Amino acid sequence: MSELPNCPKCDSEYTYEDGSLIVCPDCGHEFTLESLQESKQDVVEFRDAFGTPLADGDTVTVIKDLKVGGTSSTLKIGTKVKNIRLVGGDHDIDCKIKGFGGMKLKSEFVKKA
């Protein structure tokens, strides 16, 4: 008997085969081995300007003066940004910066602190 993977949704080890699908009896999630392998390949890795991997909750430092769109303010070099959240799209980082509020930053303009 082949070893079946844990459920990707709830991590239950009690999955079983039902035809071409793998079913989780705990949460009811149905998936295939192909979809599981594709989802592992779709994982995006975010890196700072120096190639260091970033994760949710990290603290980063701005490495370049950045103009804040819609205002005449500038985000100065060396500004620390705590508790970042990584997102997809044209900007990689959602964060709140004291004195500026909610902002989106590109990972190429920060370094991990």
UniProtKB/TrEMBL annotation:
Domain Protein YjdM N-terminal: 3-32
Gene3D superfamilies according to UniProt: 2.20.25.10, SH3 Domains
Pfam family, one: Zn_Ribbon_YjdM
Domain Protein YjdM C-terminal: 47-113
Domain of life: Bacteria
InterPro entries, alphabetized: YjdM (IPR004624), YjdM_C (IPR013988), YjdM_N (IPR013987)
Annotated family: Belongs to the YjdM family.
Name of this protein: Zinc ribbon domain-containing protein YjdM
Organism: Coraliomargarita algicola
